[in-house]
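Lecture 7 notes. Example A: sequence first, then its structure tokens.
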Amino acid sequence: MGRPKIEESKKCIRKDISMEPEQYQRLCSYCFQTERPLSWVIRKALDEYLERVA
């Protein structure tokens, strides 16, 4: 039995981003220390940023 289907409106959108090597190293280090996936950390950081500026 497979996973239940996710509603189309609730699916995450995939986008490629570019970052400097130092940023990537710092991000990976943070993810390792906090035991969080890279995508989760980026989404949370983006949410916090958008709350401040938008």
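Example B, a different protein, same format:
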Amino acid sequence: MIAYLSSSVIIILLFIVIILFLHFVPLGLWVSAMAAGVRVGIFNLVGMRLRRVVPSKIVLPLVKANKAGLNLNVDQLEAHYLAGGDVDRVVDALIAAERAAIPLTFERAAAIDLAGRDVLEAVQMSVNPKVIETPLISAVAKNGIELKVRARVTVRANIDRLVGGAGESTIIARVGEGIVTTVGSSEEHTDVLENPDHISRTVLNKGLDAGSAFEILSIDIADVDVGRNIGAQLMTDQAEADKNIAQAKAEERRAMAVAKEQEMKAYTQEMKAKVVEAQAQVPAALAQALRDGHLGVMDYYRLKNINADTHMRENLAGTGMPETDEQDGK
């Protein structure tokens, strides 16, 4: 029984050792590489496992590159893999560039890949240019008419400027700027409608692809629509603003006039009150003058006659006030 258990344990241990050996030593991948004519040492594959590199990510692209006639080695691909690059895509880009007679070295392709750009797409775009359609761009001619323009930009990838070059959004922004400038310099919007290719020529001559990762091949105007009359709308808005300012100033003057009128009314009321107060003191002053002997009886009656004559004259003239007891000295 003990001998049976020992044999089972040995078999299990042997099975585990074989599995670990095949894991660290990918014999199948080594045989495939040797069959394809790629010289990869078995110890190199074991070293890849120890360096946490997936051997298939290196060997299979190497086989593909070897069959395409590219002169690549294991160290180059492994270094790019450890740097975080996509080895398979870089090899595919190199093969495509080789077939299209585009000068592209492994170092340049690896740098483009590590920069975050799709190197294979860039090579394909160099062979088959890409069409970028701009959004609807609004521009205003000198006569105030708005034009809405949509353009199609045909670009080709510039391999030498893919690292550090501006992207598609920059191209779209520059083309939009050129359209706005060209339309804005036109005297009449009909000039643009009659010759939309004038926009293409003007924008293309500005060298908009400078510093970008693309080379602009052509700019075609896809659509031109007439929009609003911006000039008339601005004049209307200005007139409305002037009217509001004038109304505000008129309201300010009216309020000042009302305030002045109220002030004058208050002043008049105050003066009337003082006159009434002074008139109320006249009888007391006359009585005091009579008591003190400063005014005689005849003088008093003479004053009464003068007042009566004055009131009569005022009544005849239509400007007199009704006679009151205070005015009679009573």
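Note on Example B: The longest strand covers residues 214-229. DSSP finds 13 helices and four strands in the chain.
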